[in-house]
Each structure stands twice: as structure tokens, then as C-alpha cells.
Amino acid sequence: MEHETILTVKDLSGGYRSRGLFGRRRETPIFSGVSFTLRRGETLGLVGESGSGKSTLARTVLGLQPPFSGEVIRGFFDRPQMIFQDPLGALNPAMTVEHIAAEPLIAAGVRSRAERERAVKEIFDAVELPEACRGRRPGALSGGQRQRVCIAAALVTRPTLVAADEPVSALDVTLQAQILSLLGRLRKEMGLSMLFVSHDLPLVSSFCDRVLVMQNGAIVEQGDAAKVLSSPEHPFTKRLAAAALGEIPGRGKKV
Q1: With CB atoms counted within 10 Å of each terminal CB, which end of the chain scores lower, N or C?
Q2: Rg of the chain in Å (alpha carbons)
Q3: Class of residue 181 by CB neighbours under 10 A (exposed 0-12, middle 13-18, buried 19+)
Q4: Distance CA 201, CA 52 (A)
């Protein structure tokens, strides 16, 4: 079961649609010709420079926006979820975090209030959010606590697939390590398959099983994450690895 392919992406292209002069639809391609697979329990890194198409690809694969062409074939029936980069922007400031975490359950059709409350408590325990924080609104929490709420809201329905879009880039180094450790534990306990979007190749090589390297909307290299970092083949990947390792020497223990 652990080697079962649960996601197949075939020749996928996508980006943004807008209305131009006289109401004509315009398509702005951000990525094109992308193909890959994801296995059950696997963490697949998606790395590249800002503007390379990583986040748009992840949103398209999850069904948050439609593709221009190609196929996304899912071997599961639940709704994939996303952990966003900016927790303060992703969380409704008017709601308590308990209400925020319950919203995906309501959307999934869980009608029993008692069942929702039980699921929310379980996921807050799992993400180690202190009891005292659970009735507060996002603005009253620290950055690390808000990110735990985002993770809880993404995982409360127990999805098969979750995408994490730069989930630690807004945090300091200490909090980054805590959140990565948390995600590493949860993916094992819950059997998650994960798309992990980042610009940080050393981080991806230590946290992910495989990696896709994107440049200008195309996959230019893919393979075992640690091997791609240590022995990159494409010139762009070589530049990315050299620059990253120069900035962060010696980084890279698996979480």
C-alpha cells in the first residue's frame, strides 16, 4: 500500500484567466507540460525561485483553480487540503480558532456538533496548540501558534493529500524547526501524502522524499531529494544548490 500511486499529473498546464477587451477571455500561462506522480505516504518537494509557478501548480493540482489543459488523476475520494504561507492572512480574524478548525468539517457535511467538537479537540491536541489558545482569535496568537491552527484546519478532516505552501518561510529559525518537526510527525501518524512547496532546496532535501525543480513554469529536474541537492544535473539546479548551500552551510538533517 505504501508504494501505491495516489496522484498522477499528466502534461498539466495552467495559470490565470482574466477578461480582456470586449469580454474576451485571456489565459496567462504560469506553468506548462508538467507531469509527475505521488505515492501514498510520500512527501514530494516542489522547489524553484519566486515566480516559477510552484504555488499555482499546487493550487491547480488540489483543484483550487482549473487547469488550462492536461489531467490530474486522484486515487482517493476525500478533499485535498492546503497549508498556506501566511497564517494571519489565511485565518478569518473574526472567528475563534476553534470555529476556524470546525469550518472544514461543516463543509465536509459533518452535521453533529459533538462530533465536530471531538474532531477539533483531537486535532488541536495533535498539533500541540495549548488549551488556553483555542478560544482566542488569530490576532491574539503568536506566529507559531497561528501556523499550528492552519495545520489543524487542513488536517481536521483527515485528508489523504495536503499541500504545504512555504509553511515555515514567515517564521524564525527556532519556530521553523518546531513546525517542521510537527509536520514530520503528523505525516507519519496520519499516513499523509504531501506536496511541499518551497524555495529552499536544502530544507526540501532534508524533509522530502523526492523533489521537482521548477524553472519558468517547467520541471527541469526531478528525483531523490537528497541526491538532487548533492549531485544536481541541470544547470539551473546547480546554481540553486550552490547559492543555497553557500547561504546555509551544513544544513540538512532529516526531520
Answers
A1: N
A2: 19
A3: exposed
A4: 14
Q: What nine digits make up the cell of 44?
A: 514530494
Please provide the CATH number assigned to the domain covering 1-80+165-255.
Answer: 3.40.50.300
Spatial neighbors of 114 by CB under 8 A, at least 6 apart, are: none
Beta carbons of 37 and 209 less than 8 angstroms apart: no
Using alpha carbons, list the distances in angstroms from residue 4 to 76, 81, 129.
11, 20, 33
Q: Name the residue with cell 504555488.
A: 55
Which regions of the chain carry the CATH code 3.40.50.300?
1-80+165-255
| Other beta carbons less than 10 A from residue 169's beta carbon | 14
Q: Cell match 507519519: residue?
A: 188
Cα 101 to chain centroid, rounded: 17
Question: DSSP alpha helices (H): ranges in the chain?
Answer: 54-61, 87-90, 97-107, 113-126, 143-155, 173-190, 201-207, 225-230, 235-247
